[in-house]
From TrEMBL:
It comes from Halovenus rubra. This is Uncharacterized protein. InterPro entries: Sialidase_sf (IPR036278), WD40/YVTN_repeat-like_dom_sf (IPR015943). It comes from the Archaea.
Length: 378
């Protein structure tokens, strides 16, 4: 099971091509629909191997679990989903799906990243995640729920788009690209104009933003760095340099946040890969020696100075790892989602323990862990 998000405070999840929704907050996950197979020819065979229950279960013994489905709740009963490079729109909570977009053939297995699709100012935005330099990644947009699409902007200087996220504290649409120093950049669209905030180093390479009233926070996604920083950039100095809040060993992929009566809590998760990053400089170390996916948390009451490792999961070694075919094996991740009323939900993927399970920490549990950690520092 893969954690996708929330639908009216209820968990939204997927498994293979099936979509699941809690029958009530904290209730049972029930199947509400199935995403179609739009692929043809050889692509259809590959697609079935990765997204049909029987075949995907067999395949993951060789590669580890492969996730190629993402689902997003828009508004009302509307859902958007991708199955590899095909995007679908559902107006009726997953009962029916309309094919609305086909991405380029050199899109990654997952099609787009979970953070690469958003709704902003009643417009859908999709950031292309390409695997080669044959095409230029595009930011696509639709104002009619996918009936038609246009190119909002291209990023010829980048390999692919990592994140497209709406800023709840402004009218900005934030965008992150990767992967080399020159390809990595953060910027935002406001009033139809794109403004580049930073580029030129791995500090500007990220997969997920978190937004605070006074700042933007993100984690570095650099597999070959000796440490990956969690960085904060003040809104009053968007053309300045970010400051480091914390540093962890492995690249940071996903993030979530929630608010309590006392403070804002930020959570980040790291992942790991069985092979070196293909974009790493020749003399750079790889981060693959640490095969651990972790979850980290801090709160605003002490200006995010106390960081807690909430959970740690060892990446599993599928058969291809043991046979020397690591490049065909999958990464380990921890998907994160949070909601003020229920707390933090985390979903380890391709790990020795709890792989595919949706775990959680209540708001009270998070609050107590922060309190104890801060008292221990005094």
């Amino acid at each position: 099971m893969k954690l996708e998000g929330f639908y009216c405070s209820r968990l939204l999840a997927s498994a293979n091509r099936s979509v699941y929704l809690e029958d009530k907050p904290g209730g049972e996950l029930q199947k509400i629909g199935r995403i179609p197979n739009q692929a043809t020819g050889r692509e259809a065979i590959s697609f079935r191997l990765k997204t049909t229950k029987y075949w995907s279960s067999a395949l993951q013994h060789f590669t580890g679990p492969i996730h190629s489905i993402n689902v997003w709740h828009l508004s009302g009963q509307e859902l958007l989903a991708n199955a590899e490079r095909w995007l679908f729109y559902s107006p009726d909570r997953g009962k029916s799906w309309n094919h609305v977009l086909t991405l380029p053939e050199n899109s990654a297995v997952r099609g787009v990243l979970p953070t690469g699709v958003t709704e902003h100012d009643e417009t859908l935005f999709v950031g292309e995640y390409l695997t080669s330099y044959d095409d230029t990644p595009r930011l696509l947009c639709s104002t009619d729920r996918g009936d038609s699409w246009r190119v909002a902007r291209t990023f010829p200087e980048s390999r692919h788009i990592h994140a497209v996220q709406s800023d709840p504290y402004s009218e900005k649409l934030w965008i992150a690209t990767g992967d080399t120093d020159e390809e990595s950049q953060l910027g935002y669209v406001e009033s139809g104009e794109y403004h580049r905030v930073g580029t030129g180093s791995q500090r500007w390479r990220t997969v997920s933003f978190q937004f605070l009233p006074d700042s933007i926070v993100w984690g570095m996604d650099c597999p070959y760095a000796e440490e990956n920083q969690i960085l904060q950039l003040q809104r009053t100095a968007l053309q300045g340099e970010p400051t480091e809040l914390h540093a962890v060993r492995n690249p940071i992929y996903y993030a979530a946040s929630l608010s309590t009566d006392e403070e804002k809590i930020l959570c980040f998760s790291t992942g790991c890969s069985p092979v070196p990053d293909s974009t790493a400089p020749d003399d750079a170390k790889t981060g693959t020696d640490s095969q651990e996916a972790t979850v980290w948390m801090a709160g605003s009451a002490d200006d995010f100075s106390t960081w807690i490792k909430l959970a740690s999961f060892q990446r599993q070694n599928p058969l291809f790892d043991r046979l020397g075919f690591e490049k065909y094996s999958t990464n380990a991740y921890v998907f994160l989602k949070a909601i003020d009323s229920r707390g933090l939900f985390f979903n380890p993927y391709n790990t020795v323990h709890h792989s595919g399970e949706i775990l959680s920490r209540s708001v009270d549990a998070l609050r107590n862990e922060l309190k104890e950690a801060r008292q221990g520092r005094v």
